[in-house]
Design goal:
alpha/beta; Aspartate Aminotransferase, domain 2
């Protein structure tokens, strides 16, 4: 048994009351969430520990009797629901098995036409697949504030570039470019290449920090915006994402579909779009705890990026591997290394009580002690 186990158990018990209070303050409703699974506290994959929401779970359960059938009209219903939600025509929407499949589809369709440009470090799936199929990848270092360097990305993307990948908020740093700067960069790049804007974490952005590029994807600019049901909606295991863009780009993207969508994920995503109470509860709970964990790290003199995701990015003073091993001794799993930021760690947000246990473990880590039972 790890040294933190009893303290964790106490934090879990105490955290239930804090969780209920947070829900009452932020959403004024009681929302059922997924049960806590025994074992280490998993803060390593940017999952949403609160979901799926109640409407999504009901839809999943109801879909079991149709599990022998392929997705049919349910896919059309989800596209129609997304189109209404995003204020675009259905022909501007493509579905994917998570945004991950869409990233591979984009690499397959556009990366072989030329090099791929991206900031670095960032979410690497598109670039990894592009490299496997023979494309050149240009990685542009982040700026001093760990944000995308707009001018450097522009300069690294001459005519003939296959596509440019922009992750805003960025994973793993959580940083954003201001809305006006992001829009200007996208328009400059889109005059000569496809721009892919990955907005997996846009739902967690602090007000006014940046803005979605969906407005560009509604028009004639060669911009594709990616969104996912894995984060805010808590459906990571059910793999549903979507792309928004010009009808001609979306038609080509749809032709590159690699796998058929799964029925439980499709109906869960459709239901979750209409679950306003859970969505607001999920957003406000995770954002409140991001502020709390960030404040605690800074009180401990641990530098943090300005994260706008459902995670924090913290400079620990150890290699990411060493820090991960140390946190495992406290019963907590944190993120993998993200070179070249080798002494930084990405820590996902858990439930409020899990984040309380994390803060206690960070205090113990900084003081050089073990976390022991009270």
């Amino acid at each position: 048994m790890s040294a933190i186990s009893r303290r964790q158990a106490l934090a879990l018990a105490l955290g239930a009351g804090a969780f209920a209070a947070t829900a009452a303050q932020s959403a004024a409703v009681t929302v059922a969430v997924a049960p806590r699974v025994a074992g280490p506290i998993l803060l390593n994959y940017n999952e949403n520990p609160l979901g799926p929401g109640p409407k999504a779970r009901a839809a999943i359960a109801a879909s079991i009797d149709r599990g022998s059938r392929y997705v049919g009209v349910e896919g059309d219903r989800l596209i129609a629901a997304i189109a209404a939600h995003e204020a675009v025509a259905p022909e501007r929407i493509a579905l994917g098995s998570g945004s991950g499949e869409l990233l591979n589809m984009l690499a397959l369709g556009w990366a072989t036409r030329g090099a791929v440009t991206c900031a670095w470090p960032t979410f690497g799936q598109l670039m990894s697949f592009a490299g496997e199929i023979g494309a050149t990848v240009r990685r542009v270092p982040l700026d001093a504030r760990l944000r995308h360097d707009a001018n450097a990305i522009d300069e690294a993307s001459p005519a003939g570039t296959g596509l440019v990948y922009l992750c805003n908020p960025n994973n793993p740093t959580g940083t954003v470019l201001p809305g006006a700067s992001m829009r200007e960069l996208c328009l400059r790049l889109a005059s000569r290449t496809l721009v892919v804007v990955d907005e997996a974490y846009m739902d967690f952005v602090e007000p006014g920090a940046t803005e979605s590029m969906v407005g560009l994807a509604r028009g004639d600019a060669d911009v594709v915006v990616l969104r996912t049901f894995s984060k805010l909606h808590g459906l990571a295991g059910l793999r549903v994402g979507y792309a928004i863009g010009r009808p001609d780009t979306i038609a080509r993207l749809r032709s590159l579909e690699m796998v058929s969508p799964n029925l439980p994920g499709i109906v869960a995503a459709t239901a979750s779009l209409g679950d306003a109470e859970f969505i607001e509860h999920s957003r406000s709970t995770l954002m409140a705890d991001r502020r709390r964990v960030t404040a605690a790290c800074r009180e401990l003199d641990m530098a943090c990026s300005d994260s706008h995701g459902n995670f924090v990015f913290v400079r620990t003073g150890l290699s990411a591997t060493e820090f991960r091993d140390r946190m495992r001794s406290f019963g907590i799993e944190v993120g993998r290394p993200f070179p070249p930021l080798n002494d930084w760690s990405r820590i996902s947000l858990g439930r409020p009580e899990e984040n309380t246990a994390l803060i206690e473990a960070l205090r113990a880590f900084r003081s050089g002690r073990s976390v022991r039972a009270a």
